[in-house]
Specification:
Chain lengths: 308, 331, 536
């Protein structure tokens, strides 16, 4: 386990460096820059602005300065929200996105696992067809369409939830569902497939024949085995939740990190765009690592003492 | 052609067609593609014809005389289709069948014309990703050793990079550079397709490489090498043909992912631009026009249904193909 | 089995702990609803008046800070703010302001003339890099002050002879100075606060303000909370206790927040919904100090011919387009300078006359449009703008027989194309920051970066320069009018319609007056009754 982590670290550092450098130059290719507006800026004022943000130095110098700042964990000032540094903005918005993501994953697991188990235990019945049909559609639906449908039903039709904002638990319900349901669909399919495969194994049939109750068998080894593909799906799922939050945060007016990304690209807020990209890269890399570790822990080949 | 995996085309097709779900999916997809191809011949209003007097109209089909300038524009852009339409339906058209949006545009017309763009995006971007993915995986798998490992390492690295954000940056950037690109006669839409395809090839590469690795051990490959075939010849003439099955499966599964991604970009304002229309753009416009004043459910439900049913059918087809291809995997 | 159960429980425990952790870290106490809440369109760029730019900033900073004057909510005229009175010397070059004695900063100290001396100097200083610094360049020595590496304090015409007297010496007259001084970039900041905290002086725990409200809480891209400041001199007139300015969400979300009662005021609903929104009693529609027009690239034939440009203007049914295409209550342009500016009667634009248009076009050598080259109408990518340009292009096609093509570009590319004069005809709009004729007519001076038509007319430049230097209001207006007449004669631009302000305001809100600048000081608003969503 430790070896896995240690091997990954230099790669992670290399990836971060690559992403930072690539994005640094990519983002500056957008014409106009952060200080352009419809009303033409007087050249004197423009010069003052660039000097104030150290943007009048040659690009190589700016790059060196930025990289040095990065090594100290300093992403620089935001060019659009002039009262804040990127670290402050990330510090305020990342916890919000994390909470939203956590709720979405909770929804995905709490809906997906039971649905998959239900479908597996009632295989080839109408319940199975219904669950599988719903999940096929669920995976095919963009999250903003889902968000729109939820708002239609639960905000306008039946006034159950607030339309937007962040602060109260009620305001998190619809966003979490919109974000988490597509992943619930995938989890249901994976779990069901895994359960069916596990239940088809020889030793399970033997155990059944020996008289062990079906429920005991189902909730024993089969679940643990079937969870494997779900766990390995969690990696891309969390990455998907993070990127899906871009959409949900816009629709429900949540000040999370996802909404910052697109806006910073459009506002040419270089530092914030880079900061967000870097944070996401770190998160995803850590996640993949965590998933690999979890996979190792859950893999039956590693366990000591199989059931009789 | 050798068939080491034990699946004949006939066998695959038989297994595929035996499942009712896949038949349904095929029928649905066939209908969608047919409608898309026949769009110019259908008696519908223009997809970007604004009509402020009917803004936000509920679904209410009306058989009426078409607008002349719209017909003229259609004839100019699609002469064959317009002629067919005129022969079949004359000057009449079906308006407002699925309602209208805030600017008075007909939802059904936009759905039909949007399907052309969405399917085109799906196809082209998937083809791009197939070309990149298969080449990469083939090379990595056949070369093996350090080069192969390095190539797969690159894939791993790319998995960690939030490609989504880089794509957003690139598309936003290309948007800004539109004038420069136009001077070089490069179509902005084409670039969009290529960029979308360029982020979707990773899984394909991994799967292909896995297959190549196992195929490489096979007897027929050793035989070919013994007979003096060069590496590239073996790759192209012996290994590649056996990959088609998997490629078709992943192609079918990549198309919906790509269309979803395009709809995501449309929501952010980075996808197809007006007056062009795609399902993603329709869905996101519908969301924008959804307010408590005018609960225009038809603007969200119909594009959503189109996406869900079509992409769901593609997913189901892909799953069925995968099961049919390797019966050992069937559940 | 026990090992399995333990591992499963372990995994569940880890997930659960992660969830609770996320809850603790991301959850925050929800604030009770403020007295008055509104959607401020976007997060503000800064709380520092000197470096902030934009319209959402004006709403918040106008509540937190007060300058020498403040705007009348109905007319936009200058009312006493921190200055109780002011006078101007006959030559128009020296202004004296008397600062009131009953003002206060939120830290308890009095606002003095020295504060304004410091703040205005800071505003002009190159190190501050104020984007609006040019607003004060009519002050003696100001332009070179902003442009020099070592600004000379002594050369700047700002002086505070005593605590209560501020003197401004101008290099050229500025008739609208009192109105301008109400604009938020010219608000005072407290020297001791800025010097002590540096760039962090605007943090909620450090900031010192002098306006009717003080800052209570700021959540970036979520909301800003203001509370009434009891030390404000006009405290008796301020009715609101707490104010929330929301920054999150797109235009549709903002509308929904308004309709469900989360906010009391919402600005500019989506144009596609005008037909549903405008008849409502809570919709406040009014003319804006802004105009939408077409620019002609006068360096490109055939638009270098005045007759062609005039023909294009006359062929447009401006009122019809405003009524049927824009549908927001816009008025077709009767002049270039918008109607309703104080002390100014605008020059008259020729009315819709397709017959004369065709005659002019024939005279220019293109009878019935024959031989007229196909040309492009450039516009920034936006559905409503496209709709408008299509309608105008259709009228040109039908009335004149010409062949327009539409070309759209992303916003920044569009700006670039205009600046580089890479277009034939281009959509354009101009909205005034403060109420003065000059901001409209100075656009088309020869050297102006905002001209972007290639048009250069020495007679026009002369008239505008003279008007700018004129201390007498009536004479100034007359000079500007002559300049505008010249502009409407030469027509490097074709004005089409005057823009509108559209606000949705809940019935419980009082004191909301429609005005050209769309300025609605929080100080003058009050609420009557509990917040209730007006509903659909």
């Amino acid at each position: 386990m430790m070896r896995l982590v240690l091997v990954r670290l230099p790669w992670t550092a290399a990836i971060l460096l690559l992403v930072a450098s690539g994005s640094f130059f990519l983002v500056r290719l957008v014409p106009g820059g952060p200080f352009d507006q419809e009303k033409v800026t007087d050249p004197v004022i423009r010069a003052n602005l660039l000097a104030a943000y150290d943007m009048d130095a040659p690009l190589g110098v700016q790059y060196a300065r930025y990289m040095r700042g990065l090594l100290h964990g300093d992403f620089g000032p935001s060019l659009r929200y002039r009262d804040y540094s990127v670290n402050q903005i990330v510090g305020e918005s990342l916890p919000i996105s994390l909470l939203l993501g956590a709720c979405a994953l909770a929804v995905a697991l709490l809906v997906g696992l039971p649905a998959g188990a239900l479908a597996a235990s009632r295989r080839a019945s109408w319940v199975d067809t219904l669950v599988m049909g719903a999940s096929t559609l669920g995976v095919a639906l963009p999250s903003f369409v889902l968000a729109g449908l939820l708002v239609l039903l639960f905000v306008f039709q039946w006034r159950l939830f607030p339309v937007a904002g962040y602060g109260s638990p009620a305001q998190l319900v619809l966003p979490a569902i919109a974000l988490g349901l597509p992943f619930a669909a995938s989890i249901a399919r994976l779990f069901r497939a895994g359960l069916l495969e596990a239940l088809g194994e020889d030793w399970v049939r033997t155990a059944r024949a020996k008289g062990l109750s079906p429920r005991g068998v189902l909730w024993g080894h089969a679940t643990r085995v079937a969870l494997l593909p779900v766990v390995s799906f969690l990696g891309p799922a969390v990455a998907g939740v993070l990127s899906g939050s871009l959409v949900v945060e816009r629709v429900f007016a949540i000040a999370g990190m996802g909404s910052h990304f697109v806006d910073s690209a459009f506002n040419a807020d270089y530092n914030l765009a880079l900061g967000v990209v870097m944070v996401y890269t770190v998160l995803v890399t850590l996640l993949n690592l965590a998933v690999d570790v979890a996979y190792g822990l859950l893999d039956p080949r590693i366990e000591v003492g199989a059931p009789a | 052609m050798s068939d080491p995996i034990g699946t004949t085309r006939a066998g695959v097709t038989r297994r595929l067609l035996r499942r009712r779900g896949s038949l349904l999916a095929l029928a649905l997809l066939g209908a969608v593609v047919l409608l898309a191809l026949l769009a110019p011949a259908l008696p519908l209003p223009g997809y970007s014809s604004l009509d402020a007097t009917h803004a936000m109209a509920r679904p209410a089909p009306e058989w009426r005389t078409a607008d002349e300038s719209a017909l003229a524009q259609l004839a100019e852009a699609h002469p064959a289709g317009a002629a067919l339409r005129h022969a079949l339906f004359g000057e009449r058209e079906l308006a407002g069948a699925l309602g209208r949006d805030a600017l008075g545009r007909d939802v059904l017309a936009r759905l039909v014309w949007g399907s052309r763009v969405s399917l085109m995006v799906g196809l082209i971007a998937s083809l791009v990703s197939v070309v990149i993915g298969v080449s990469w995986g083939l090379l990595a798998g056949y070369a093996g050793g350090r080069l192969g490992n390095l190539m797969m390492r690159v894939v791993d690295v790319l998995y960690s990079v939030p490609l989504l954000f880089v794509v957003i940056l690139v598309v936003a950037l290309l948007r800004e550079q539109g004038a420069a690109l136009a001077r070089f006669d490069v179509d902005r839409e084409a670039i969009l397709y290529v960029v979308i395809g360029a982020v979707s090839w990773l899984t394909m590469a991994q799967v292909v490489r896995g297959q190549v690795l196992s195929l490489r051990q096979r007897d027929f490959v050793a035989a070919a090498r013994a007979l003096g075939s060069s590496g590239s010849r073996v790759m192209l003439r012996h290994i590649l043909p056996n990959l088609w099955g998997f490629v078709v499966v992943y192609l079918t599964l990549t198309v919906p992912r790509v269309i979803l991604f395009e709809s995501f970009l449309s929501f952010l304002g980075l996808g197809v631009e007006p007056p062009g229309v795609s399902w993603g753009l329709l869905a996101s416009e519908g969301l924008e026009q959804l307010t408590a004043i005018s609960v225009a459910w038809w603007l969200v439900v119909f594009p959503g249904l189109a996406l869900a049913l079509t992409l769901g059918a593609l997913n189901m087809l892909g799953d069925s193909l995968r099961d049919a291809l390797d019966p050992r995997l069937a559940t | 089995m026990r090992a399995d159960a333990r591992r499963l429980l372990g995994a569940a425990a880890v997930l659960g702990a992660g969830f609770v952790g996320a809850l603790l870290v991301g959850g925050r106490a929800s604030l009770p609803r403020a007295d008055f809440a509104f959607c401020n369109q976007d997060e503000i760029s800064s709380l520092d008046p000197a470096i902030a730019t934009g319209v959402p900033e004006a709403r918040v900073l106008g509540g937190l800070f007060e300058g020498l004057t403040r705007p009348d909510p109905k007319t936009g005229e200058a009312l006493p703010g921190m200055a109780t009175s002011w006078e101007c010397a006959p030559d128009g070059l020296t202004w004296r302001f008397t600062i009131r004695k009953d003002s206060a900063w939120t830290d308890g100290e009095r606002v003095t003339a020295h504060d304004f001396d410091y703040s205005l100097r800071r505003f002009l200083h190159p190190a501050t890099a104020a984007p609006y610094a040019y607003l004060l360049w009519f002050i003696q020595g100001a332009e070179s002050y902003t442009g020099s590496a070592q600004p000379d304090e002594a050369s700047l015409g700002i002086e505070a002879p005593s605590d209560t007297e501020l003197v401004l010496r101008l290099a050229r007259p500025c008739a609208y100075l009192p109105r301008l001084l109400a604009y938020y970039p010219l608000a005072p900041v407290k020297r001791s606060c800025v010097e002590r905290w540096g760039a962090a002086w605007i943090a909620t725990e450090h900031i010192v303000t002098n306006g009717p409200f003080r800052l209570v809480e700021r959540r970036v891209r979520d909301r800003l909370r203001l509370a009434r400041f009891d030390g404000y001199w006009g405290r008796a007139e301020v009715a609101l206790d707490t104010v929330d300015a929301y920054a999150a969400g797109g235009i549709t979300t903002q509308l929904n927040m308004y309709l469900t009662g989360l906010v009391d005021w919402m600005i500019k609903p989506p144009p596609g919904l005008y037909d549903a929104v405008l008849p409502r009693p809570d919709a406040h529609v009014g003319a804006q100090s802004g105009v939408t027009f077409f620019r002609f690239n006068v360096e490109r034939p055939p638009f270098d011919d005045r007759r062609v440009r005039t023909a294009f203007l006359l062929a447009l049914d401006r009122d019809g387009i405003a009524r049927d295409v824009m549908r927001g209550g816009e008025q077709g342009s009767r002049s270039f300078v918008p109607q309703g500016l104080p002390d100014y009667v605008a020059a008259a634009l020729a009315p819709h006359d397709p017959v004369r248009a065709r005659a002019l076009l024939a005279e220019a050598g293109f009878p019935g449009g024959a031989g007229f080259p196909s040309f492009e109408v450039l516009y920034p990518n936006n559905e409503v703008t496209r709709d408008f340009c299509e309608a105008c292009a259709a009228q040109w096609r039908d009335e004149l027989g010409v062949q327009p093509r539409l070309a759209n570009q992303a916003w920044k590319v569009y700006l670039d194309s205009q600046r580089e004069l890479r277009y034939d005809v281009s959509w354009g709009a101009w909205i005034a920051d403060y109420l003065d004729v000059g901001t409209f007519l100075e656009l088309f001076q020869s050297g102006s970066g905002n001209n972007r038509t290639g048009w250069s007319d020495p007679a026009y430049d002369e008239l505008v320069a003279q008007a700018g230097a004129c201390p007498d209001a009536a004479q100034r207006a007359a000079l500007f009018r002559r300049a505008e007449e010249r502009l409407l004669d030469e027509l490097p631009i074709a004005p089409v319609y005057q823009r509108i302000n559209l606000n949705l305001v809940a019935p419980r809100v009082r004191g909301f007056s429609d005005n050209l600048l769309d300025v609605h000081p929080l100080r003058d608003l009050s609420v009557d009754g509990p917040p209730v969503g007006p509903g659909p």
